[in-house]
Amino acid sequence: MSDARALLSSRPAGARFAWPQPRAILTLLKPITWFAPIWAFGCGIACSGQPLGTRWPLALGGALLAGPMICGTSQAVNDWFDRHVDAINEPDRPIPSGRIPGRWGLAIAIVWTGLSMGLAAALGPWVSVAAGLGMLLAWAYSAPPARLKRDGWVGNLAVAVSYEGLPWFAGAAVMRGAFPDGHVLVSLALYSLGAHGIMTLNDFKSIEGDRRMGIASLPARLGADRACRVACLVMAAPQLVVAALLVAWGRPVHAAIVIALLLAQLVLMRRLLQAPQARAPWYNGTGTTLYVIGMLVTALAIRP
């Protein structure tokens, strides 16, 4: 902790009164992370069975809400409350580097929260419910006293639900104008559970800082090898269940595609397990892509 505080205190004395750099604000909101919730929202649209037609403004607004707004807010909240950890792990990030000075990081998170909830209200009651829960999880994940990220099991599940399940739910709800059916709820729940493993792989980049700051991410708690095996199991098992359900629901072709995608992931997982910490980013660009394609296949299979 003392090392991190020393790094943060090395900013110029008047930095807290400066304006943040516009490019730094965009970096804080991390556009690269918006893909996952936007894709999940798209899966919700796909499984609704409804044509865009006159509802395309709702679809566009929902994609904006899922990605730049709610996901962007979660990134700002996380970076603000993790600024001491980031000063150790990634000191070039906008807040510890001083490009977003003073308490601007917190102010951006608060303003973006309000704007997100306003947009959610315009998209309908069920979207507002999903957005409210997602925002609650975003703050609880990073902010004390809850700070769910201190426990890798609970924290990763909160992120997985926020990134996959809730946007999927919102996409289906906004297109149908009603609460999604049981097939949708079961499918999004299983893929949210599997995404827990993806979140575990994301934690490999910060093992040293997590251990020093007392954050029990799974790689910090279990070690890289065991955490990687857990992540692979958690990603694979729900996809097997999805495939079995698709067969039971009379969608054998879609089930076969999901199984084929899973088999390809298992091949990549074998290579990942040989060097988990070094290859986690590589797997997130390969195996995770196959995972989310399976989400879309499932969404198309369960259309009414």
- The best one-word shape is globular
The low-confidence parts are 1-16
H and E string: HHHHHHHHHHHHHHH
As for the CATH topology, it is Tetracycline Repressor, domain 2
For the record, the CATH architecture stands as Orthogonal Bundle
Mean pLDDT metric: 92
Number of DSSP helices? 15
Alpha-carbon distance between the two ends: 54 Å
Strand content: under 5%
Class from helix and strand fractions: mainly alpha
Rg computed from alpha carbons, rounded to a whole number of angstroms: 20 Å
The count of strands amounts to: 0
**Main beta-sheet strand count, sense and barrel state:** none
Classified by CATH, the class is Mainly Alpha
Number of domains: 1
Please give the share of residues in helix: over 70%
Q: What is the CATH homologous superfamily assignment?
A: UbiA prenyltransferase
Structure summarized in a few sentences:
This protein is mainly α and about 300 residues long. The chain contains 15 helices and no strands. It is about 80% helix and about 0% strand.
Key traits:
globular; 304 residues; mainly alpha; Tetracycline Repressor, domain 2; 15 helices
Topology:
Layout: H1 2-8, H2 22-29, H3 35-48, H4 56-81, H5 83-89, H6 94-97, H7 104-123, H8 125-142, H9 152-176, H10 182-202, H11 207-213, H12 218-222, H13 224-248, H14 252-274, H15 276-301
Helix pairs in contact: 1-5, 3-4, 3-9, 3-15, 4-7, 4-8, 4-9, 5-11, 7-8, 8-9, 9-10, 10-13, 10-15, 13-14, 13-15, 14-15
